[in-house]
UniProtKB/TrEMBL annotation:
Superkingdom assignment: Bacteria
UniProt-recorded name of the protein: Transposase YncI
Organism of this sequence: Parapedobacter defluvii
Span of domain H repeat-associated protein N-terminal: 2-72
Pfam families in the record: DDE_Tnp_1, DDE_Tnp_1_assoc
InterPro entries: ISAs1_transpos, Transposase_11, Transposase_11-like, YbfD_N
Signal peptide limits: none
Domain Transposase IS4-like: 80-312
Length: 347
């Protein structure tokens, strides 16, 4: 009765318009049926919220993810030097304690320049990111890009997988690679000749001075040959001063990189990594209410996240209205023409 393409188009249109659960999506469809029929027949009308939930619970998330990545590849062009941040996020509303099902953890790749999610891979637990990241990398075209990862992704196999994709990496080094961290700290403790890049940030009620030091002199870095493509190490020193209290704190973090570049490029890549937190994860949580929505059955939470990421991409790529993301969703709910504009490049 309800062709899959009609269901998917209904959900994308409704989520664009601020609907965040199956009931509101079905209500949107019934109220906008004539508008929807400009695109698809909807001969049997709009499915109920129960039907929508069952379809998304049953849909194969891996196949849907592959289709999503292919769709993104058709609309986004990655330029040389673009930072692709990879990080994981737990969908907290997807757990089912009564059924013994833990919440899904999704590893996403986010192109900071294009402001778009390139692909995702689901795992059962955060610790499984190490196996999910190479599988995700294998699905992406990354030649000329800079891939950034937090300490969880600082693994030799992952560094090698990035180099095989003809991309570069900047990987955070923490205590999960204790020996490597000790070696990097040792090199900077020897006060090698380094280049420096200093940036200031006076937002969020504090003043932050960030100094990036980088060196390609790895003579005293033991086991450097074990890390594919390793050419540079970097140290970021963050000095934060609270504007109100005047209290200050200093924190150092360390990175390894395949880039043969100065601290400015590395510092920019590290700053760009946080776009995946601010522009993707935070947006899914706060604007698309991902964690608050209870989608516990089957694969529903994973598949809904793909729909939300598609809607977010369409909203991000609309630039004429100058509205915020929440306001664009509100306008799409009220203005059929604006909703059609958001969808025009894709349907």
């Amino acid at each position: 009765m309800y062709p899959l393409e009609e269901i998917l188009f209904l959900c994308i249109s409704a989520v664009l318009s601020g609907m965040d659960d199956w009931t509101s999506i079905s209500m949107f469809g019934r109220s906008k049926l004539e508008w929807l029929r400009q695109y698809y027949p909807y001969r049997h009308g709009i499915p109920s919220h129960d039907v929508l939930g069952k379809v998304f619970a049953a849909l194969d998330p891996e196949s849907f993810s592959q289709a999503f990545s292919a769709w993104v590849a058709s609309i986004a062009e990655l330029t040389g030097g673009e930072v692709v941040a990879i990080d994981g996020k737990t969908i907290r509303g997807s757990d089912n304690k009564a059924g013994g099902k833990s919440a899904f953890h999704v590893v996403s790749a986010y192109a900071s320049g294009n402001r778009i999610c390139l692909g995702q891979r689901a795992v059962d637990e955060k610790s499984n990111e190490i196996t999910a990241i190479p599988a995700l990398l294998d699905t992406l075209s990354l030649e000329g890009c800079i891939v950034t990862l937090d300490a969880m992704g600082c693994q030799k196999t992952i560094a090698g997988a990035i180099i095989e994709k003809k991309a570069d990496y900047v990987l955070m080094v923490k205590d999960n690679q204790e020996e490597l961290k000790e070696q990097v700290v040792k090199v900077f403790g020897m006060k090698p000749a380094v280049e420096k890049e200093v940036t200031l940030d006076a937002g969020h009620g504090r003043i932050e001075r960030r100094t990036c030091q980088a060196t390609d002199n790895l003579t005293f870095l033991d086991d450097r040959e074990d890390w594919p493509g390793l050419r540079t190490i970097a140290k970021i020193t963050s000095e934060r001063t609270d504007k109100r209290s005047g209290q200050s704190s200093t924190q150092a973090s360390y990175y390894i990189s395949s880039l043969n570049a100065g601290p400015g490029v590395i510092a920019k890549a590290i700053r760009s990594h946080w776009a995946i937190e601010n522009n993707l994860h935070w947006t899914l949580d706060v604007i698309f209410r991902e964690d608050a929505a209870l989608k516990k059955k089957g694969n529903a939470a994973l598949n809904y996240q793909i729909i939300a990421k598609m809607a977010l991409a369409m909203i991000e790529r609309e630039s004429e209205s100058k509205l915020s993301k929440p306001k664009k969703r509100q306008r799409a709910a009220l203005d059929d023409d604006f909703r059609s504009i958001l969808l025009a490049a894709y349907f």
